[in-house]
């Protein structure tokens, strides 16, 4: 196994503190988009946002993140993990504050675009911090926990913040989240060691060129297809529950929370299972399970209670696929390329998030959620095919490699 950075072991308490901080950073990096999904019914009614515009918010946010991710990866390799994480959390706070102040769709879209910046920094910065501070034997477990931070954000958006919105209004709930992000930025600045100074003009991390035949292009393509399906679920699950299944706004938001809890468990469990000898096979298997989850969503159109089972299955299978892909990146990255490789795979994931919801929105506006979930099943099936083809090629290449 190779890594992009050398790392020294950390004490138990220090390691737990680092894991908690990185998990929090991942949660805030995408919290705004989970909030838009969980508060979707309130935004559609209160701001006059249509179903199509609701999907467009995801497109704008993740489109920005996809474009900026390669630059973000190089930036993280250059400036270091602490500066990048503090910037991530401050930008997340600003974006959330603007969402809370938005008088209509225009400023809402601007705020979501700004929120693409912390997304672009999240995976490179947190992966680099792990490679610098966590022993190789523990990186898979720590990666799974910190990746579960994204689903922690889904839980927080779907339950406590959705409940808060019913008490203090949706704007108050979003502003509370913005204040929490600023507190997390102060935590990151005080908890992480200062970044090493880099001589001017020196290439970031002395980065090695990408390895031919490596997993990054395949994982990026897999992530694009997986992300398209996951983003559609994140964006429209609460609205589906409200409009098609007759749920109230709080109960519909709870669907996002259930998905988030299942995603936390799935990401931690599957990342621990992603040992170097079997990690290559897991993305395809998880995407295959995600196909079943999407079909359960389609069946929920007629059998409503299945939506809860489907939300759990999406978290356990689809959401976990992204965490395993990040474990693979850290296992296979060339020295000095951890940030850049993480960013390239994340760019594929974000591109999928940008593409998926607008396509789904075409069905949602017509109330054809069953057809929309069938499209998600096709996207997950294509992701499974890409991942399994690469796994077969990788197994053959490693069998031929000199030992």
Automatic annotation (TrEMBL):
Q: State the annotated membrane topology for this chain.
A: Multi-pass membrane protein
Q: Report TM segments.
A: 20-40, 52-72, 84-102, 148-168, 218-239, 251-270, 282-301, 307-330, 342-360, 372-392
Q: Quote the subcellular location field of this record.
A: Cell membrane
Has the keyword Transmembrane been applied to this entry?
yes
**What residue stretches are annotated with the Major facilitator superfamily (MFS) profile domain?**
18-397
What's one Pfam family the UniProt record gives for this protein?
MFS_1
Task: Report the PROSITE patterns cross-referenced here.
Answer: MFS
> Per UniProt, which keywords does this protein have?
Cell membrane, Membrane, Transmembrane, Transmembrane helix
Protein name (Swiss-Prot/TrEMBL): MFS transporter
